[in-house]
Amino acid sequence: MSDYQQMDVPEFNVKKILPILLVGLVVFFAFLSLKKIDGGQGGVLFKANGGIDTEQTYVEGWTFIAPWNKLHIYNVRQQEVMEDMEVLSQNGLEISLKASAWYQPKFTDLAKLHQEKGENYLNDVVKPSILSATRSVIGRYTPEEIYSTKKNAIENEIFDATKKILDKQYIQLNRVLVNDITLPETIKAAIESKLRQEQESLEYEFKLQKAQKEAQKVKIEAEGKAEANRILNASLTANILKEKGIEATLELSKSPNTKVVVVGGKDGMPLILGNN
Q1: S-S: 68 plus which of 48, 55, 61, 210, CB 3.0-4.6 Å?
Q2: Other beta carbons within 10 Å of 126
């Protein structure tokens, strides 16, 4: 008999271990397939056997995605991009400006944006569109208009021109702000000098108009007084003057200081003789 005793080897029961393996695989694939989309995000599904799913944009929350497919996550909140640009004015002068844009991808068109533009759409689409629109708009204005009176109009025109481009690219533009406009110092000084001269000219014109109005007012008042005197002189006949004089004398005669009233004085007017 051998010095080694025969050891019993446990029989490997495939039927018992198989269910455990299957459950483990299911849990493993379920873990791989469970994807979370946070608030303010949207998902685009790429199917291994069919490409981009352009019929659906995945909303925030948990969703099951087959491990062989891929879910691309996008920020769909409003975002801001700020650009420093060098552009040319109407007369060819270089203008430096800083513009910012508020934008966001169109949620329902997120799959088309991913398919046609890609995840780098900010650099590939948004920024070039802002630059192109800004160059086009600034090129219609002179430095004087850009520096002084047209800032709001320029903002609105850049917004309209940029929006017209981005609407076709599945991107929503909400606002464009021109934050800073810088002209060459010589041009800026010349414009400021011209504006001061225009302001002084306007002030002088205002003072001149005011003086003319005052002179016109004095003239009208003088003409009115002259006309009133003419009418009064024409109405005061000798008999009326005598009658008014008699009425005034009689009133004065009622004064306690009056002593004697003599009728028949100079020009037929009454005379009043007092104590003296």
Answers
A1: 48
A2: 23
pTM above 0.90, yes or no: no
Gap between the Cα atoms of 120 and 74, Å rounded: 11
**d(Cα 143, Cα 154) in Å, to the nearest integer?**
12
Question: What residues contact residue 173 under an 8 Å CB cut-off, 6+ apart?
Answer: 101, 102, 103, 159, 162, 163, 166, 167
Domains of the chain in sequence order? 19-75 (no CATH), 79-183 (3.30.479.30), 244-273 (no CATH)
Residue whose C-alpha is closest to residue 139's, from 83, 94, 188: 94
Who's near 49: CB < 8 A, 6+ residues apart? none
pLDDT at residue number 144: 76
Amino acid making up residue 91: N
Q: Residue for token digits 């014109």? A: 205
Residue 73 burial by CB count (10 A; 0-12/13-18/19+): exposed, middle or buried? middle
What integer is the mean pLDDT of 198-227? 73
